[in-house]
Design a protein that fits this description.
Blueprint lengths: L1 E8 L9 H16 L5 E6 L2 E6 L6 H8 L5 E10 L3 H11 L9 E8 L8 H15 L4 E2 L6 E8 L2 E6 L2 E2 L11 E5 L5 H11 L3 E8 L6 H18 L2 E7 L1 H10 L5 H19 L4 E3 L12 H8 L6 E2 L7 H10 L3 H4 L21 H8 L4 H10 L2 E6 L2 E5 L2
Parallel strand pairs: 5-6, 5-7, 10-11, 10-13, 11-12, 13-14
Antiparallel strand pairs: 1-3, 1-4, 2-3, 4-8, 4-9, 7-8, 12-15, 15-16
This protein binds adenosine-5'-triphosphate and magnesium ion.
């Protein structure tokens, strides 16, 4: 008997004229993912993507797990497929369900008939298939109100599909549906979560990381690349651009009022992010900032840094508590890496009394003591890029 993986569209079904374009993006993702797990036939029908193994060597569990991480599907499931007649369905129930229902006491059947030429109505299909299950599985009974398992029968164009309730998909929109975002990726908990959340809304994510050798270490950079690698479970490939802030930080330290160190640094980051977004064609900048979390994340401080941005800055964590951010970090498996205690450039030369309610004019006055544009140009010249995949990373020109 044949098994297929089904992925059911989420929001995509509502997208009217853009639906075909988004479907194509989704299929591209499924194909890229499937290439990792074997030789599959992939096609779409009735707001569902079908992933059908072409041979026994296909890793169905791996692919099912992979499908759960593709944005655009609300649900995924493995179904047994057979011909669209009641005898075949009966044989399929007998073969497919008994060992999958061991220990299960109650069930019900739900049927859907996308193919309206099928001779039985949906209630009739439910009754018949229910009887087949009772016949095949000892000790089980029907409970239509609170069953332990629901068996779904779908009569579709290509055959009859039998499966349990679908499991949750990743939701959201297929990657590429919302353009490209440049994620400011530190080694912390918040920024990988922010990247995940915007990828979920359909953004292809490139990352920008700032390092500050020798104040930050090789290990700190490795940690960031590990986080990027974890995100590739959802994004496939990710380019991580790295810029050095060492000289900028030393100049700020030597020339400016200590209370403004962090704000000045964050303005440099925003200016550099803007230049990098332009160079790498990103439509938006993404950060992991959360309102009130630290001194540089008050509304006033965000105003001061945001003033240098020339495109939208998405801060999906802005209204979230740390606990909520941590819950997502755990779900996407970035948490354990993020809490490793390596220094970030934001944690070197930190002021004892950072300004939480800065005035833009005062910040600009501090900035006038240093060659802001010259330092930005120098930092931009330090760029190098790593291409991160689930297998690791390599340095590339881009
Ligand atoms: P995170 O947990 O992501 O590190 P955080 O709570 O430590 O965030 P900050 O260090 O103030 O907060 O940084 C706020 C945001 O600025 C980060 O979420 C990230 O988007 C960006 N950022 C901070 N440090 C770096 C860095 N070294 N490289 C790139 N982006 C950074
Ligand atoms: Mg940080």
């Amino acid at each position: 008997m044949k098994e297929v993986i089904l992925g059911k569209y989420g929001e995509l079904v509502l997208k009217g004229a853009n639906k075909a374009h988004f479907e194509a993006l989704l299929l591209r993702r499924v194909k890229a993912r499937a290439a990792l797990y074997g030789n599959f036939d992939i096609y779409k029908m009735q707001s569902t993507v079908y992933v059908e193994p072409k041979d026994d060597a296909c890793d169905m569990d791996g692919m099912l797990d992979g499908m759960k991480k593709i944005f655009g599907f609300v649900g995924v499931t493995v179904a047994a497929v057979c011909d669209k007649d009641m005898e075949s369905i009966r044989a399929c129930v007998k073969e497919y369900f008994p060992h999958r229902l061991v220990g299960v006491k109650t069930f019900k059947v739900e049927a859907k008939r996308a193919d309206k030429t099928f001779p039985l109505t949906s209630p009739q299909i439910c009754r018949e298939v229910g009887a087949y299950v009772l016949e095949a599985v000892r000790g089980i009974r029907v409970d239509v109100h609170a069953p332990q398992r629901v068996i779904r029968v779908e009569i579709r164009e290509g055959g009859a599909y039998l499966h349990f309730d679908q499991i949750h998909g990743a939701g959201g929109m297929p990657l590429g549906a919302s353009g490209r975002g440049l994620l400011l990726l530190s080694g912390g908990i918040d920024s990988p979560v922010a990247g995940f959340m915007m990828a979920k809304r359909g953004m292809i994510i490139d990352a920008l990381h700032f390092e500050s050798f020798p104040y930050t270490s090789e290990r700190a950079r490795e940690k960031v690349l590990t986080l990027a690698q974890k995100l590739t479970e959802y994004t496939d490939t990710m380019y991580v651009h790295v810029l050095s802030l060492t000289h900028i930080q030393e100049v700020i330290r030597d020339a400016c009022n200590e209370d403004y160190f962090t704000l000045l640094l964050r303005r440099f980051m925003m200016k550099l992010a803007t230049a990098m977004a332009k160079k790498h064609h990103a439509d938006a900048i993404i950060t992991g900032e959360s309102l009130g979390q630290v001194a540089s994340q008050t509304a006033e401080a965000l105003y001061v840094t945001n003033a240098l941005a020339d495109r939208p800055v998405f801060r999906p964590c802005i209204g979230m508590d740390k606990e909520e951010i941590v819950a997502i970090a755990r779900k996407i498996d970035t948490y354990d890496t993020a809490i490793l205690p390596y220094e970030d450039c934001c944690t070197v030369f930190t002021p004892r009394h950072p300004k939480t309610r800065p005035e833009l004019a005062k910040v600009i006055e501090e900035e006038s003591r240093i060659d802001f544009d010259g330092l930005c140009a120098e930092a931009l010249a330090s760029e190098y890029t790593l291409k991160v995949t689930r297998d690791g990373y390599t340095r590339v020109e881009r």
